[in-house]
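User: Quick one: structure for sequence A, then sequence B.

Assistant: Sequence A:
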Amino acid sequence: MEALLQEIHRSIIEIRRRLHQIPETGFKEFKTSEVIKEKLREYEYEIEEAAQTGIIVRKKGISGRKAIAFRADMDALMVEEKTGVPYASQHQGRMHACGHDGHIAILLGLAMYLSRLETVERDIVLIFQPAEEGPGGAKNIVEEGYLDKYNVEAIFGLHIYPGIEEGKIGIASGPLMAQNGEIDITIHAKSSHGAMPHKGVDGIIIASHLVQAYQSVISRSIDPIDGAVLTIGKIEGGEARNVLAGKVRLEGTMRAFSPEIYNTLKRRMQEINRGLEMSFNCEIELEIRDFYPPVVNDPNLYSIVKDALGDKAVDIRPMMLAEDFSYYQQAIPGFFMMLGAKNEAMGFIHPLHSCYFNFNEDILIHGVEAFIKICRALGAL
């Protein structure tokens, strides 16, 4: 067992570095897909293509019980890499700045491990999924019916995370990540000379009232025990210092751990806008693009994973990040965890999506071992 894990460790580091050099964005992971297929064929799996550039394989069990699944995301980000590593991105303006190259390597490590076993007790399905960063390839996998096709009853995933010390795995029961949406607001006011403000309607004044009123939504419309975020991060408007702004645009983000709270945010924003329209005789356009649902871990799976991981598991608080793993959890019980990557001594402290993001590749085998332990805990091995 130990010798096999050492072999897997060496192999997945090499795989990760290959993948790191060829970062590709959502549904364009063509080179990435070919590397994954190459390794899976080496391990003698029968490959099924899914969701355009995704790949699904199965290790067939002997018991006839329902399958368990493990998922890795494949895509990269539009980020110019500045890590300076010898295996840095060869695709200018793109980078694996969120660790998905590591996620793929971990799942291929599990695939390699399973390929060395003569039999397993129940089906184990491995999903290599495109487009997590957007628009959400998990939704495609679910809608194309692969969970039903492979009779999957539970699914697991992980994310490399620099907010947790290396060697630990963060877990939570219930909400782990938030539902998120993007906000675009356009205020249509009336321009006039700054010396004659009574002849216009000042879009900047309206925007000021709007931003302050939105801030009251979290503090006055949401239970203080519940988490939510409503942030306006960008504002632009006006033509000159001595002209009332006839048009102002604002952009922001909203996040919550439950659909009910998320919908409350949307309702209150619309109500505030209507009030400002009446007060200032203006028009306010609001567009909210809903993205991923909240990631909510199944409590029963939490207990199983906590026992399986032992002292490597640490309970963590929910975070306002978002993940399309949530689409799987809407269909079947699922569990998502955070693989610790913080190592101050080695300088691995940069956040996800940073152009400097990197991690100690020794953590990859920890992810493989975690998946193996979950397989055992669920009677698959």
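Sequence B:
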Amino acid sequence: MTESDQPQRRLRSFVRRQGRLTEGQSRALDTLWQTYGLEVADGMLSFPDVFGNDGDVIVEIGFGNGTSLLEMAQTAPDKNFIGVEVHRPGVGKLINDAHHAGVTNVRTFCDDAIDVLQHNIPANSLAGVQLFFPDPWHKKRHNKRRIVQPEFAQKIRAKLKVGGYFHMATDWEPYAEHMMEVMSVAEGYDNQAGPNQYSPKPDYRPNTKFERRGERLGHGVWDLVFIKSS
């Protein structure tokens, strides 16, 4: 087998950092996963079956500890939220907090978002996709690991309804510029704020711990909202 014939390993946009589960997080994963958890092996989802209603579905990729995702679910009980996160402590915290808050319109995967999009999310089904403060991969040699790339933009577009949004936010200006460059030429999208313009922070996006950290460090925050036009 030549080098060109060998299967190419997919470049990951994240590094798994397992961390320690608290007792509450571990218990939540053990006892509440059947209520809140979703698996890639489940295959294509029927959202009415998952949530028991026909409300709009919004996917958040990389929700961290889940605090802002839970707040959005509480603020918009008529919508349904699916969080995708690879770090088990964050997933356990979201499930535990959702249970204690009595929130029923949120579900979560503990998997790679690329796999979830491919195997679990039906085409043209989502009202929105959110990507808040992803790893910017600061070093130039690592820029290729940034999740916002032309191919990824089209994976998202395939899952959005016409009129659905792809909302990105970052506190790293070079990454904001990269996002704008990628999305401005992405087929089938319109910039909600106008060509090459960043969006004002929407009311529905809570401040995250990454945003607060960035503010303490003197960073700005850039929001980009692109609408699927076709």
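Residues 162 and 228 are 5 Å apart (CA to CA). The domain at 122-230 is CATH 3.40.50.150 (Rossmann fold).

User: Thanks, that's what I needed.
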